[in-house]
Structures
1.
Amino acid sequence: MGPFIPQGLINPELSLFFAFVIGLGFGYVLEQAGFSNSTKLAGVFYGYDFVVLRVFFTAAVTAAVGLLLFDYMGWVEYDLMYINPTFLKSAIVGGVIMGFGFILGGYCPGTSVAGAVIGKIDAMFYLVGILAGIFFFGTFYETFKPLYTADDLGDIVVYDSLGMNRDLFMFIFGLIALTSFVVTKKIEDKVNGITPPYKGLFHPSYNLPFFLLIALITLNLVLPGQPRSKWYETPATTLLDEAASGKYYVGFDEVAYKMLHEGENDLLLVDVRGADDFSRFSLPGAVNVPLKEILGTRAERLIQKSDKKVVLYSYSSSDADQAWMLLRRAGFRNIHVLKDGLNGFYGQLFDEKPVTDNEMASVAFETRFRERAAKAFKTGEAAEKTVSKGIPVTTIVDIIPPKAGKGGC
Amino acid sequence: MEQKPKAYMNPYLAGFLLGLVLLASFVITGRGLGASGAAKSVVIETVGSISPEYAKNNHFYASYFETGDDRPMRNWLVYLTLGAIAGAFFSGFMSGRVGFKIDKGPRISNAARLAFAVAGGFLFGLGSQFGRGCTSGAALSGMAMLSSAGFITTMAIFGTGYAIAYFFRKLWIN
């Protein structure tokens, strides 16, 4: 499901709107937390107010646990997430400089925005300083560049750096956060000369949230490694039912009829044989996606974009059946298979004995239709009718009917 | 009529909500929050419009002007910050906290506070470039993604803060 924008699931035009909405929440929470007040922020360094640590750690742990659980549920593709690259020296130097900036200025950039908009003059001056600092960096970029780009360790994650299992790290990270909440509260009370009105480590009202956090990080730790199927994947039991019912097969008559009547052609024919076979001959209008590429991005785009009924075919139906299974598993709908494959198709087309029982009108119609279809395909009418669709087509006129008839895979 | 400002939100609740906002940002955009990015866009755009020639010849700026229509001001982080401005103002307004004011420790003058604020902003702006993001973008979002950079930057910021806090105590405490 997520992330939406990198996967193109949200109109790019709307992405800036979402940026604004997320920003609303960001600014609102910062201000509500008291981050618009520099004396409150600086308190974290002097022990009189640890609000920064509480908000900061809670937010980081909440988002981190949330991401891991979303990943487990298959709701986000962790691989598509942006991971801040680690440039070791630059990160440390930058952090140290920012540490000085925090003590001197009392804000960080996000909090200074929250402060400035509600009239904090010191925050406004701080913002001017930020712009000057970035300009300074830009002006002397060539001087800073060697340090800025040194020690590129890539998109590394902390649990790998520590040689630790991801979920174990998350568990420890959560416990460290909880411990820091308890310890800093004690320090804060001491600095401010307050005697807590409760006994124990923390106020009893925090029992539930703290317990929830421990429960979540424990759950994340003990959940089996293999995640459940992704949200878009079709469950195996559904697939089994569909496969057993055989309803996903499309017969010769439908395919041939629609190939001859372009106005009614709602089929996207996908040839899953190898490219060599496809170039020798294929059905008119068919697109070649070899079986081994069926889960590739090209196939995905082709099928996703098409509002037609997708009909897979191969010589017999076995490769097409496999392709059907893979595509259905990957969550694609409206996927079908040409019954009995190309061999069956040509068998019906060229070998069908005319039915003489004229009493059955429908059968007779079918017979006439097949005769007409056989004639049309031989003279290339179908190719002419379907070639205008702009899809690379190998005309059926070039086809040498398979010698062995059926089973020629 | 002078109204008493409302109390701040419980920090754990605020942190939880901030975590949800961050999570939403990850799920929607694949990346976290940021604040210094918008400031960077402002600097780049300003320099670019005052002196396009200079911007073209400086590698820091030039890379942002190479692609024609992808102007720095139109990017994600700028709109995020515009949202943050509106959200913070709404919050402050609803809680009766809007008004010109200088927050400072009890022992320094207003002028000194403002001078240190500019200096602090300057350092944070500079540091955020080396750190490839500030407390929001590099530290908070980085930690949420469990990236090494996030933890290194966070420890560097707060470690430095604690290491030097004593020497600058006059700015903040008695």
2.
Amino acid sequence: MSIEETIREYILENFLFTDDQSLLSSEDSFMEKGIIDSTGILEVIFFLEEKFNVKVDDDEMIPENLDSVKNLVAFVGSKA
Amino acid sequence: MSETIIHCLKESVSRYPDSEAVVYKDQRITYKQLWSMVCSVVNYLHGQGMKKGDRVGLLIENSPEYIAVYYGALSAGGVVVGLNTTAKASDLINWLEHCDARFLFSSINHPEFNEITKNCTYQLNVIGIGEYLNDQKSTCDLWSEIVDKSLLELDMTMLADMMSPATIIYTSGTTGSPKGVTLSHRNLISNTRSIIEYLGLSSKDSIVSVLPFYYSYGNSVMHTHLAVGGRLVLENSFVYPHKVLEKIVQERVTGFSGVPSLYSLLLSRTKLKEYDFSKVRYMTQAGGAMAPASIIRLLEEIPTVNFYVMYGQTEGTARLSYLPPKNLIEKMGSIGKAIPGVTLEIHDENNNICPPGVTGEICANGDNIMIGYWNSPDETRKVIVDSWLKTGDLAHYDEDGFLYIDGRSSDMIKTGANRISPKEIEEVIAHLVEVEEVAVVGVPDEILGQVIKAVIVPTSKNALEKKTVQAHCRKNLSLYKIPKIIEFTNELPKTSSGKVKRYLLQNNN
């Protein structure tokens, strides 16, 4: 499974509670679409750290890195 | 006419007209500018035939507009109903109908906006705030058409008297009768004055405000800082905590208010020592117990700050007690003593006062105690007895008169800054045909204080998946009300009278 597929599946499964891929576009802002709240973002960070073995530094906790599937994929890619 | 929070704001406007009152995104609004917005709201509402006591709903995030509508509606004689912006349309409509709101000031881009205007069962005058993200044509009055920057004279002839309702804060309720805590002008001003006194607030103070104004804690932050001519720096998201810290430093604010989960986030996800907190004079914490270990860590990271542990309830306007920073270490774990103007007693089951060391229910008396629950005299009688508010919180005094919370006598769940009735989640889950019975409880969580757990008896084995339950909740409840933990069982533990033994469900295994 690619990084994007893994992240997408995680978001669908844990925040939208569905496997319907059509409900989440890669560019959807988690905040604006009301998909994830502040504690949800923490869960996403724990998931990234565990699944992809990356360390998310405090100053990396910004929407540009975390606020959509596309941003998460790019962020994890940049850590590789 | 005695002084109200409107008079306090007016005083701040006349003393500090050109000082910043609100900083919001790239806007810096002075007291004079804020006042013209307030006057515009009054002017508009009077023009619409507003009558004394009409309820005015408010559905926008913390913003200059929120403040202007709040103070404007009060000045025009109205009762403000600040609505939870994360609530679903069904809740919002239920609340609006319950208090028979005549006006609704709402962000036109609120996700439930169209649903509310379409499904509200009576004539609700809607005023849209903001700009449409698409080319949609407006079907309601717009904020941009209401505001007249030249208006500076406030017509306060309609202002209600001190004992009349000023605001309603809905604390729960999807179905049945929602609980609308109704606060008078006297409630608001007395609590505002008390908080100003013990925090020592002045026009030199400013605060980064992340707490929503529609909750009593955020509401008190708004009133206290505007009453002294201070400055509110609005940040509506705590999703990215270090951005909030940067704002504290950039804006050189003197204060910060948070709930335990916010402080947990700061401690776990930021390097507090790397920020310059030299201007920050006070930090306050309420909205549930914060672990002593976290308080000690915070003091180690920011040793210069005065940290105020506070306790309160919406039914007490916001605040009931505080622990002075000078007593923080010595009385760690205490919620302190009653704030100025409030009397707190510990009562046993027979309403006798408990001696030090003996646990009973915290009962509160003072000018800040609510009028009652809106249109719910029976519910009101359960919690206000002989002018004493029965808080439902169990506590004891020590020999020095400091209070310590020992537990709660009610089933309410406290997660993050939110107080949730398990019943409203149970009612939503029970709508699933595969559910025979359900009980919802709060279980301990390091960051949030509690998280929600639902224990379900399905109609048959394998009838239901966890995901189905959560997806159903997502459709019908705010995000923070979706149970994190779902368990299935054959039967719920019950007393001989059939009441669910919730305490047996409260382990998170």
3.
Amino acid sequence: MPYRNEELIRKQRKLAATQARRKVYVHVEKPVSMFDSMSTEEREAFFTKERKRAAGVLARRNTLIKCAMGLGICIAIIASILALIPIFYTFINSFMSSAEIQDNYGVIFQSLSGHAKESGAAYLDKTPVLRMVPEKVTFEQYKTLLFMSPTYLLKFWNSVIMVVPIVLGQLVVSSLAAYSFARYRKRRREILFFSYVILMLMPFQVTLVPNYMIAEKLHLLNTFWAIILPGIFSTFSCFLLTKYMRQIPSSYVEAAKLDGATEWQIFTKIALPTCKSAIFAMAILLFIDYWNMVEQPLVLLTDEQKQPLSVFLSQINEAEIGIAFAASALYMIPALLIFLWGEEYLVEGISHSGIK
Amino acid sequence: MSESQNKRGELLLRKAELAKRKKRLHRRRKLLDWGVFTGYLLPSLAGVLLFFFLPLLMLLKTSFQKSPTNSDFVGFANYGRVITNSAFVNASKNTLTFALISVPLAIVLSLLVALLLNSGMPGKSIFRSILLNPMMVPVASIVLIWQVFFSYNGVINGWFASLFGMNKIDWLKSSYAQIVIFLMFIWKNLGYNMVLFLAALNNIPTEVIESAKMDGAGPVKRFFSIKMHYLSSTIFFVGIMSLINSFKIFREVYLLTGDYPFDTLYMLQHYMNNAFRHLDYSKLSAGAIVMCIAMIIIVGFLFFAEAKFGGDIEE
């Protein structure tokens, strides 16, 4: 009978399994643990002691971490103070009256301007004083700067008139070029792109002479165009924007293409909005870079009238220190305002530029 | 029989024609693509060619001429004149020393600050914005306050004199001048580098760090074996950016000390500016070409180093 047969087999298997189990699980005497050997009181005493020890270790570790954190915060605070001191003092000094400035810093600038002989005696016993708070807050310097000395305002205007076209022009030109580099990736284009990168890495010391020569050939020397035109075609933003645009998922572009979008539509409706933060970051970086320029105007603009404020500020003399502080502060303000407005974009833009 | 053969021949012909048309269409599409994208590139390319590459070629030509007006070929005479010029040698030595010391210093310091800020400290974003602030400040407007601090009768000397009774040091006109410009360089560039490092540190996968922690790797070991590995391409990028920025230290030096600073502060840009004043173009162009070649060698070396040591990180 098949049924009986099956039961027999099952029984045999069961037997075999039991025997196997008996072979594996050898009975072992339960060892006497420390826990078992102790009486109830001993146990409690032991556990309280252990708990105390563990708490001590934990507390020690926590205080160590806290100390390290405190030290870190201290270092960070010191670094921040060091970072802010020069900016802070420039603003503070711009609110002092010119007499106070003379009193505080006269000794410094008097020795710089070279005619120490006549007026030097007045300062001999003086040491410069750094004041956290001006004796009297006045806007005197700003008043003289804004209403009485047109030179400073003219130079400020020179700076604006050079920087704004450069930033706007370079953004337009290089976002177009970046789109091309990002979408059309053939061998020869890559070589061209690499040459752009090399050009980006060239310091002013190299590019200035070519700039000068071409400006001379085109009769642009001593006009703002000599600075604006090379500025517009500088390749720095092109490089970073290309890096950004290459990160746009190709499925976006393909989807748009299937729906019949032209390249221009893809550029304006997909590429530009995706790279919005990068473009803002680029605008900020470019603004600082050109707001800060010294080398190009020094070489390309021989006319003193056309120099930007950045060059002019270094040529102050003793009598004008007070105004110079106010002018410095004024020159700083646009950059700082832009920073406050676009810090998020800037941080994001810088962060992404480093990641491949 | 012949009819079917005819038919087959016709079919083949049509097929060939179709293939040809397809090929032509394909070629036209490719050409169109090329045209469109070249069109996008054109404004930039034209400008770059006109304002950078063409003048560089002109430069190369004048560097072999006796003078811009006298186009006699003089071979490498201009180069010889530049390389043996003591001012040029001094300037390039100073610029190179500055770059060699300031770039690693900037990398290490900003990496340390980034690690500090990344260690779960409260107020990270506040410190980040404060430290990024100096980057925004134009050199020209901060120079005045540097002068207040570092000139001979300046504040720092005053402090040192009153605290330690030290003699006055002429910070800007002695061998200490280099320390001062290092300080200024780091003050300005720390924030930018730090933001780059912070971004890279945030990009390290946390699982890797956590599993290393569980395996008992201490913070030092974790840093050198794991974080360094992920950071190496950022270190390369920061290095290149710092190198570019280190050439801009001329601004500070010029605005602080004028055309003829102390010997160790005499930068390449000073040399160029003074040569511009003497209108010695052939010398200038030879100098610029020498610098250009030096730059290409340095950058090429850096790229090579990155490809060799950093190649295995890309996911």
